[in-house]
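The instructor's notes for this session suggest beginning with a concrete chain rather than abstract definitions. Hand out the sequence below and ask the class to guess, before any prediction is shown, which regions might be ordered.
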Amino acid sequence: MTSGRLTFLMRLSSTLALWALMLTTVFSGWEIGFLALLGFMALRALWEYYRMLEANGIGVFSLTGLICAGVLLFGGFWFIRTGGPENTKDFELLVPVLFLITVFTRQMFRGTSNDPLRAMSYTLFGLLYIPWLFSFVMKIIYLTPRLECGMTTGQHYVLYLVAVTKFSDMGAYVFGSLFGKHPFAPHISPKKTWEGFAGALFTSLLCSYWMYALMPQKLSLFRFDDLTILGLLLGFAAVIGDLAESVVKRGAHTKDSSAMLPGIGGTLDLIDSILFTAPLLYFYMRFVLGAG
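After discussion, reveal the predicted structure:
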């Protein structure tokens, strides 16, 4: 078996296992289960980001960053659950303020970095890039009204988000592997091609229509125009999200964020595209569809 085919099979197996976990969580309607799954993924991805930088000799305040990420995610969940996504604005501003106060106080009494400004910048960037952007997945869950029994309904839009994003990733990989000849962004990732980019848009658009055909009542906010716009928009954002992580990995001189998931890499490699697609879906639902 060729290495390319083996990589594809390992990636497919990892993706199917994660889909099974996602589907189980989504259709259970268990809110704490959502929090546990999303919180673990975000914190694990942030830890991988800090570990990549530290392995390359770049100092970061990893423990402080992880604690602040936990506060952002779990505190944000409480505010969202009690008052809706709009209720988190001030709290999200509080977390970076507390981070800066903590780090500057630490430097006053126990300097641990030869370049504290650089360490603060990389640490704060990680907080914004991973847990803050990923928290929009949680916000989507509470954008739509609950059922009479109290169960949330927004998790079906999260399922739509993940499906379209992952189909974009898979389409880029398959079309790029089969037909890729023209480099898309060689200075960032030499293997990315325009053929792969076209494949990403094509498969994300098809998945957008397919998901609505599977559960039209669960995605009742969407109309045909929305499915078309979101299919293309999320497909494009997924490609940019994947390239964004390539920029981070290139800066850290590493190939994968970790080896946790066969054929994929680490948790950051798994969610990199969702970090960009989740905020776009959230704001589209808020400002175009009037949800929330």
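Then share the key points. The first strand starts at residue 183 and ends at 185. The chain is about 75% helix and 5% strand.
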